[in-house]
Amino acid sequence: MSSHTNEALVELDHVTKHFAVRQGVFSRSHARVHAVEDVSLTVRRGETLGIVGESGCGKSTTARLMMRLIDPTAGTIRFDGRDITKLSQRRMRPLRREMQMIFQDPYASLNPRKTVEQIVSQPFAVHGGMSSSEAKLRVKELLEVVGLSREHSSRYPHEFSGGQRQRIGIARALALNPKLIVCDEPVSALDVSVQAQILNLLRSLQDEFDLTYVFISHDLSVVRQICTRIAVMYLGRIVEFAESEEIFEHPRHPYTAVLISAVPRMSVDGGRRKRIVVSGDVPSSIAPPSGCVFHPRCPRFHAGHCDVVEPRLESAATALGHVAACHFPIQRWPADEDELRTGAAAAASADK
Amino acid sequence: MSEIVLDVHGLTVVFPTADGDVQAVSDLSYTLHRGETLGIVGESGSGKSVSSLALMQLLNAESARISGRAELGGRDLLSLPPDEMRRVRGKDIAMVFQDPFACLHPMHRVGDQIAEAVTAHEKVSNAAATARAVDLLGQVGIPNAEERSRDYPHQFSGGMRQRAMIAMALVHNPSVLIADEPTTALDVTVQAQILELIERVKDEFDMGVILITHDLGVIAETADRVLVMYAGRAMEYGPADELFAAPQNPYTWGLLGSMPTVERKLEELVAIEGSPPSLVNLPPGCAFHPRCIHAFEKCGTALPDLEIAPGGHADRCHLSPQMKREAQGAGIAGSPGAAR
Which of A100, A122, A305, B266 is the most buried (most CB within 10 A)? Predict the structure, then answer.
């Protein structure tokens, strides 16, 4: 493992992103999707920061904000010590080589009409500074680094399996020696037997090239295997943030507990487990619920408090520890649904 | 054990293509009992979905060569003429698909679509069919079913759409329900709800359920018996408890070993090297042998039989029990010893 320093590579400071949506006749009413709401977090050099949550929780938007692929509505973004919130596209360009991305769908993220060599050498063409013979050589090196062979460089994407395509995407991301790689669901489209290959590859590349990863996933089993620290998001907010093992061993936010509990398990011991099943679906992020956004589904919901007062996540400065945005955080884990319900000392009655 | 509702024997599906024959399913046999869940697990291209589509006669007869038998209520589904199959499909055997967004007509009300499923097989009034639709929507956990039955699919969330699809499948109380990756498109908290629902309606409607998935975790939590498929063939078949406690086949070991778990952080994930073979050009012998770390000469020349051991636990592998014990005892990569 590379040595983790506390030095920050990316810092988000109270970042908010709203998207306008047009509704109604003649698009008169302008509603807003609250995609990311007051998110503060720090990505440390050399770590793998996991962002987990269900669809629509804002995890991908958060990553796109980090890379300034979209502009925040409010807040400050710093990369490598520099405020990049307001940088022009031209000023951003040299920084772009420091931040790369690996995408979910290896079928959609590679141009089917270009050879592997053209795909992997594209970053050199964009950022310059390399002759074509140098670039060719470098592509071959990169292919070997990601576990493909030199001979693959003249082939087209359709000749490769999903796992191999994902390796091509990784080679492209590594091309410019970036500091940060954002992995957006990098193994979700792959079969399990291949998933493990890619996760192992990502782990070994991190050591070899001193990479910092932001790892976005809905799959908690994958996240536990690869992440150093984890931010759990729900409806655009970070609801819990801690060291990875802390999150899994001592979840404090009921939503985190529900997420962990909902993952099917393979353990043979103890027969069938009682899942904590929450009712309903994730509410609309156009009109998020009042108070704590999780209150309509929360087993620890306490009427008159949770639906009125929004719990706050302590600021990023204290994020060295374990923070949860909950009025009645979980004290004891593992717990079943009843224990979660009654465990909240103040929550006497739990009903929606 | 309870009555057998579906008996599949020697099911083979071949798609002739310009590049050669795609051997999608080869000689697949299994039985499904009333009240049980059979989990079919495998990676993409393992034939798990195609085998079920074949049972439902949902494969284009012109592009697929299907052979074998599949008995349901004394009839062979594979040899029924299309118009007779139409009377069975949706009535005695029903299916729920992965993508509930694609399965509902976007311009018809959800309740009407379910009512249509009622009138497809029963001569009842529209009012009676609608009442039955509302009743079923309630049974699958849609709140305010009466009101919501008048909604269009886009007004439903993903989880609710899947509930509606399940309601539609239950209309005629089929004896077999096939659920093909029913939760893959859903978020994990919603997945938990849908799995509980399938479990509940299986008992309430006294059906046999075939649950097709790539997720061993889902299988471990819901299936009574498990069929592991690879490259169109059954590799291992047995009671779920036994299969997870003492998996016999190296491919199953590999799957279990490469599966990340939420329960602990593993030192290293044991990947199965390589990728699944092309179905046009299957390796000789055991299709898994090029990726199997325990393979020896025989594996590349002869196809192992699916041998049934006591307890109904079957496994397709040339390794002797002695060799398997050694492989597992050593705790080397690919064995369940390394996975746990």
Answer: A100
Residue range A277-287: mean pLDDT, rounded:
81
The yes-or-no verdict on residue B325 having pLDDT over 60 is yes
Chain B residue closest in CA terms to A159: B278
User: Nearest C-alpha of chain B: how many angstroms from A83?
Assistant: 35
Minimum CA–CA partner of A200 in chain B: B269
Burial class (CB in 10 A: 0-12, 13-18, 19+), B62: exposed
The shortest C-alpha distance from B172 to chain A (Å) reads 27
Please indicate whether, in this complex, the C-beta atoms of A266 and B217 are within 8 angstroms of each other. yes
Tell me which residue has tokens 């284009």: B60
A287 inside 8 A of chain B by CB: no
